[in-house]
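Batch job 17 of 40 flagged for manual review because the log was empty.
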Amino acid sequence: MEIKILEKVMSMSGVKELAKNWYGTMIKGVVDTVKDRVALGGDYHVEACQILIETGSQFEDVWGFNIRFEENQKGVLEFDSMVNIKPDLGNRSRNINDQEIIKNTTEIICQFIEGLKKS
């Protein structure tokens, strides 16, 4: 299954369809907060992260997220990823600790995914 870098807005039904290739009830993704890029898919966040890095992103700018569909049909956004462990940036957990980064990543993700619930 190919990881998809979003180049235009994707509907939630399109995201759910893409999710069937991996987990079905959720999809993993990463967002580059400097270049405003989003990649979806993969068994692990690091797979999508690597694709963004190979195409011009910097690791320190890429943050991992999940969209879960079990809790809400419109999806629930959460930031739980090993990619988010960035001690040099002060983030020592899988969750994003900086509210400004959460706000920025959420805005970018919601620009690309139509109808996403902002948890």
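Reviewer: the log was empty due to a logging misconfiguration, but the result itself is present. Helices lie at 12-19, 45-54, 99-112. Unflagging and moving on to job 18.
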